[in-house]
Design a protein that fits this description.
Elements: H1 2-7, E1 17-20, H2 25-35, E2 42-46, E3 52-56, E4 64-68, H3 75-91, E5 96-101, H4 120-131, E6 135-139, E7 154-157, H5 160-170, E8 175-179, H6 185-195, E9 199-208, E10 211-218, E11 225-233, H7 237-248, E12 254-261, H8 267-273, E13 278-282, E14 294-297, H9 300-311
Parallel strand pairs: 1-4, 4-5, 5-6, 6-7, 8-9, 8-11, 11-12, 12-13, 13-14
Antiparallel strand pairs: 2-3, 9-10
Helix pairs in contact: 2-9
């Protein structure tokens, strides 16, 4: 930790200034602990009608600033907070304003899959740039193409190194990595390659948003322990349905792994009642009143390293390749 704190100083001996919105207070504190600094002073208040007021309570003139804010429920409030903090920093003459968005809201609306729908992921990208962001750092975007929606630099980080390290330390072996749907095959294959495990795929169709129906299981899973890998657990319908289908095929223990535990609606009840033994997630979204079977792995050291490299003009891509 002392080493990264020393390396986090720029050529003038100045550390980065890391601010937090109300969505990522705990994660920001952990990042700052890794960097050996205290979080930047920002005041976020609300008027009686719900309007948000942001004030930066320290000088940022000529400084490299980083704003950590995940955009989970209430996603619109958290996004608006982020826009206002970015704008306040820009107007306070910060040299760089870097938006660190562990969970990028509206990422699932990244293409026109039917007529007359909004391309929301692109709109959010435009708004971040208009608000004053000079760089965006995100973790496990729902689709990599979202990087192309920005006209500013984007660092797309992956939780895989952290999650794989945790699985290895737990000593799991002789298991099959399972993709819960065809669209997630590339991500699941990456995990399978890192873990030296075979890959299986669940073929399903989605008749409407948040509703999934399992159709087929491609690959040999009978008698094996399995790890389901996904980027997001929202209502948990897909994950629990996949687990039930796998159980019918005679698998052993079932584990799940995801980066972003949105856990909206009936998700916690579904997971608690499911045959999944353990769900391993990261802290891109804080988990309060959590499930007993939920294990949270922190991305703070990885994000602290990314901030250090950006602040000191080192390569980020070589670190997370």
């Amino acid at each position: 930790m002392q080493e990264i704190a020393r390396r986090a100083l720029d050529e003038h001996g100045r550390p980065p200034i890391v601010f937090s919105g109300t969505a990522s207070v705990e994660l920001t504190q952990s990042i700052c602990d890794n960097l050996g600094i205290t979080p930047g002073a920002v005041e976020i208040r609300r008027f009686s009608d719900g309007e948000i007021r942001v004030k930066i309570n320290e000088s940022v003139r000529g400084a490299n600033c980083f704003v950590v804010q995940s955009c989970y429920t209430p996603v619109n409030e958290h996004l608006m907070e982020l826009f206002l903090i970015l704008d306040a920093l820009k107007r306070a003459s910060a040299k760089q304003v870097n938006a660190i968005i562990p969970y990028y809201g509206y990422a699932r609306q990244d293409r026109k899959d039917e007529g007359r729908v909004a391309l929301s992921a692109r709109l959010v990208a435009n708004l971040l740039t208009a608000a004053g962001a000079t760089r965006v750092v995100a973790v496990d975007l729902h689709s990599a193409q979202i990087q192309g929606f920005f006209d500013i630099p984007v660092d797309h980080l992956y939780a895989a190194p952290v999650l794989v390290d945790y699985i290895r330390k737990r000593g799991f072996s002789d298991f099959v990595v399972v993709s819960p749907d065809v669209g997630n095959v590339k991500r699941a294959r990456s995990y399978a390659s890192r873990l030296g495990a075979p890959l299986a795929i669940i073929d399903k169709r989605r008749p409407e948003p948040n509703v999934a129906e399992v159709m087929n299981i491609i690959g040999e899973v009978s008698g094996k322990d399995v790890f389901l890998f996904d980027d997001i657990i929202d209502t948990a319908g897909t994950l629990v349905g996949a687990a039930e289908a796998l159980k019918k095929r005679g698998v052993g223990r079932i584990f799940a792994c995801c980066t972003h535990p949105v856990l909206s609606g009936p998700a916690k009840e579904r997971l608690a009642a499911s045959c999944i033994e353990e769900i391993i997630v990261t802290d891109t979204i804080p988990q309060r009143n959590s499930l007993d079977k939920l294990t949270v792995v922190s991305l703070a050291p990885m994000l602290a390293e990314a901030i250090t490299r950006i602040h000191t003009n080192e390569s980020v891509s070589t670190l997370f390749r």
